[in-house]
Amino acid sequence: MNYETILHEIYQESKTLPIIGNVSISIPELTKVDPDKFGIHLISIEGEDFGIGDSNEKFSIQSVSKVLTVALAFSFLDERIWERVGVEPSGSAFNSLVQLEYEKGIPRNPFINAGAIVIADMLVTHLENPKQDFLDFIRMISGSPTIDFNLKVAQSEKDTRFRNAALANFLKSFGNITNDVEMVLDFYFHQCSIEMTCKELAHSFFFLANEGKTISGIQVLTKSQVKRLNALMQTCGFYDESGEYTYKVGLPGKSGIGGGIAALYPKNFVVSTWSPRLNEKGNSDLGMNALELLTTKTGMSIF
Ligand code: GLN
């Protein structure tokens, strides 16, 4: 497969598509990002890198980080994490509160904010230095020791945390947060503020395409855990647009309101896109279109 030519074609064709959406306004610091940034990076399972556009510029990975916190929690708690969070698509917005009430504080899945906050609570309990240990995990799986939090973004999210604080307090009232709410939120805002380039993001997700092994050969999860995490991404990775995303793209993937997407074809490649303009569901419009072009042109999708 000539990925270089294909990425070039996708990049050119994407530029002719109608411009849809705008940068996220929910975190003030993210409104400063140039909406017209656009990058794609693909790493093949053989470890060959292909990048185009702004693929070497850092951006806020936001909810894409939720896959990596679940991976870390999964690695030491295994199936026990599902006692506190479900594996069903929510059909609601990523920051919705409604389901929590009638489902008694058990979030539908770990990719909506409520679920990710429960996973953050697990990590706060299990890690000695939660924020630093999580960062070290990311640096290890990506092979990139310079990956870091953006403290301004974390602070900006903290300053406007009303909805996430409501979710966390609501979860606490059901006994599904065991640590101090502010401590858990602080961890969650930092995980979301992590910045990566498209290349670093694709490298971080490599183990999910490689039966649990990172590029450097470290076994992070078992084959079976990887199957489960990829299945969750497929069914829940784009919130209430997961069906539409699956229909168009046909690869497990995860989006974030920083405009990033990471997606993968097991045993073949990992691809990441970055375009900060979001549609009304909070997913990157151009990123989804670029991935649709990729699976259409290559015929490489899990379906
Ligand atoms: N940090 C964001 C929030 O909690 C993440 C949401 C997202 O990327 N969809 O609202």
UniProtKB/TrEMBL annotation:
**One Pfam match:** Glutaminase
Binding residue positions for substrate: 63, 113, 157, 164, 188, 239
Q: What is its EC number?
A: 3.5.1.2
**Top-level taxon of origin:** Bacteria
* Stored SUPFAM superfamilies: beta-lactamase/transpeptidase-like
Instruction: Report the enzyme's class at the first EC level.
Output: hydrolase
Listed InterPro entries? Beta-lactam/transpept-like, Glutaminase
Keywords (A to Z) from UniProt: Acetylation, Hydrolase
Catalytic activities: L-glutamine + H2O = L-glutamate + NH4(+)
Task: List this protein's GO terms for biological process.
Answer: glutamate biosynthetic process; L-glutamine catabolic process
GO MF: glutaminase activity
The record ties this protein, via PANTHER family, to: GLUTAMINASE
Q: Which family does it belong to?
A: Belongs to the glutaminase family.
Its subunit composition reads:
Homotetramer.
Q: What name is this protein filed under?
A: Glutaminase
User: What species is this protein from?
Assistant: Flavobacterium gawalongense
